[in-house]
Amino acid sequence: MNKSELFKSISNDLKNRLHLLEDKPEETIETTLKALWFTAAGFPVSAEGARKLSIPDLTDKQIKNLHQLIEIRLNNTPLAHITKRQNFMGIELLSDKRALIPRKETELLGRKALELSNRIVKSRGKINVIDVCCGSGNLGVAIAHYNTNCHVFATDISQEAVELTQDNINLLNLNQRVQVKQGDLLSVFETDEYYEKTDLIICNPPYILSSKVQKMDSEIASNEPVLAFDGGMLGIKIIQKLISEAPKYLTIDGWLIFEVGAGQGSFIAQLCERSQLYQQIESLSDDSGNTRVILAQKAKPVYSQS
Description:
By secondary structure, this protein is α/β, with parallel strands linked by helices. It is 38% helix and 19% strand. It contains twelve helices and nine strands. The chain has a seven-stranded mixed sheet, with helices on both faces. Strands 1-2 form a two-stranded antiparallel sheet.
């Protein structure tokens, strides 16, 4: 059987057996099989990365390996944990159990943050960014990768996530412009070195209600860290803290930009407004019309006249 026949045969078999998740639209039967095929051949690649590639010939040993990888995937192990790769904003990143697998939906936040960073660089020549709840580092490293005038300070409460972010920093040769530290939200930046010196704070926080976390699909609940999803009783615990603490670190006219869960947008925009800490609040919606990203520009200080 040649490679095309083998690919077709396995694809047909997977039609009734492969469980695909809505929040990973890049994973289809074809891209999943391609990614596993390349991994079996010794060239690990993500589903997105494999999409346009032509599959190589496999040795008998590699074909055996391919079938083993397929069985692991059919047992609900995420594809990104098998290939150790996930594509985010066109960049191949390392991915494993240590942090949330970057989702396609978060590229809406990433692209807007990159656009903001480019706009700030045009007026200031350079930009300081803090990436909070950095997970695998996907947002911070993507912005630094595409904007060479950008310096990123990333942080996560999980030491394992910090280590994965460091691996991605190393992978992309960004050690000169991206640093990562372990800490709870903005706690590691509680010094004069960071106060009012950050142009942009980005965050993909946990925003799922605690009661819903254990009801998530088992592929997610059993393989990705709960810390990355659990946003407390109302799903906004960390977001509330972020809204109140971010201005202390932002420059005048600096921006906070973060992801929210479907259905949370208008309420969280109101929280930003009521805080009176921000002068301009915007939102971005996904293709379904759900608000998924909030942008808030720090309010200018009000000076009292004596």
